[in-house]
TrEMBL record:
Belongs to the methyltransferase superfamily. L-isoaspartyl/D-aspartyl protein methyltransferase family. This is Protein-L-isoaspartate O-methyltransferase. Its main location: cytoplasm. Keywords: Cytoplasm, Methyltransferase, S-adenosyl-L-methionine, Transferase. Residues 19-28 have a biased composition (Basic and acidic residues). Coiled coil: none annotated. InterPro entries: PCMT, SAM-dependent_MTases_sf. Residues 19-42 are annotated as: Disordered. Gene3D superfamilies: Vaccinia Virus protein VP39. PANTHER family: PROTEIN-L-ISOASPARTATE O-METHYLTRANSFERASE (PTHR11579), PROTEIN-L-ISOASPARTATE(D-ASPARTATE) O-METHYLTRANSFERASE (PTHR11579:SF0). One of its GO terms (biological process) is methylation. It is found in: Cytoplasm. Residues 30-42 have a biased composition (Polar residues).
Length: 280
């Protein structure tokens, strides 16, 4: 690791990667449906299609995602977004962000053909890239129709959700406890040159007190309960969305209503990898 990389926050634009070169196109092949339990790259077309009502937000998303190149993936991704919308996600900015981020670029080339199936897929180290539907659903709940300023993500994984978040929030901080995945996310995100993501290697259960409070906190891994440190790092009026549980998991929405009060709502069943303490 270079001295530059050790600094926090790590600026993605501070590093350069040519990984894009040589990536093949993996689209148009058949993809089978998979579920989270069954499962432990190249050009991106960033044309964002949204309704006129969100034109200014669309513009913001387009400006934040300057990694356009020609694009076989556009149509398959549009179909993926349509399926997410059919399942009930209706926030146009979230759908536009899902359309804008090239999910195939976060997967191994062997799995890229399945990138636009609405399923979680392995990313190594017994972890998975989240299912597009659940990413959309959680971000819609987190945003609740309002502009998001500072957001914390626990569980960077391959960096996909952080990239989607970068189009709907002003600043994204993302923590990963597995060093190899933290590095993978850096490599995946680098060619996209997204300026508003800061990646941090550490135990997300502790949050990031040095940059708190957050308008929004999103967990991509399930604990038996939401860590207290994260509740304390939520702004008053802020929202936290997290999967909780063991074999049976539920999405929990927590809103901080005052210094000492939080409201909790159980939203729907879900399936995530476990939240674990410490770093490896
Ligand atoms: N956000 C990812 C999902 C990654 S899977 C996506 O876009 O698809 C969940 C991730 O949470 C795993 O990489 C796992 O290592 C990580 N994780 C689990 N416990 C954690 C903790 N305490 N702190 C930070 N990351 C954690």
């Amino acid at each position: 690791m270079t001295t530059k990389e050790k600094r926090f926050p790590l600026s993605l634009s501070s590093v350069v990667d040519q990984r894009e070169a040589g990536r093949g196109d993996h689209f148009g092949r058949s993809a089978s449906t998979q579920t989270a339990t069954q499962n432990a790259r190249q050009g991106a077309n960033l044309a964002i299609r949204v309704s006129p009502a969100v034109n200014s937000e669309k513009k913001q998303a387009e400006q934040s995602a300057p990694f356009a190149s020609p694009l076989v993936s556009d149509g398959v991704r549009r179909a993926m977004v349509a399926r997410v919308a059919q399942q009930g996600v209706s926030d146009a900015l979230v759908l536009a962000a899902l359309q804008a981020i090239p999910r195939h670029m976060f997967l191994d080339s062997g799995l890229a053909s399945q990138a636009y199936v609405d399923a979680s897929l392995p990313i190594g180290h017994h972890q998975t890239i989240s299912q597009p539907y659940i990413v959309g659903r959680m971000l819609e709940i987190l945003r609740n129709g309002a502009a998001l300023d500072k957001v914390l993500e626990i569980g960077t994984g391959c960096g996909y959700q952080a990239a989607v978040l970068s189009l709907i929030a002003k600043d994204v901080y993302s923590v990963e406890r597995i060093k190899a995945l933290h590095e993978l996310a850096k490599n995946n995100l680098r060619p996209m040159r997204i300026a508003n993501i800061r990646l941090h290697y550490g135990d997300g259960m502790l949050g990031m007190p040095q940059v708190a409070p957050f308008d929004g906190i999103i967990l991509a891994a399930a604990g038996m309960e939401v860590p207290h440190a994260l509740l304390m790092q939520l702004k008053i009026g802020g929202r936290l969305i997290a999967p909780v549980g063991d074999r049976h998991q539920v999405l929990q929405l927590i809103e901080r209503v005052s210094v000492h009060d939080w409201n909790s709502t159980m939203v729907e069943n879900c399936h995530f990898v476990p939240l674990r303490s410490g770093v490896i």
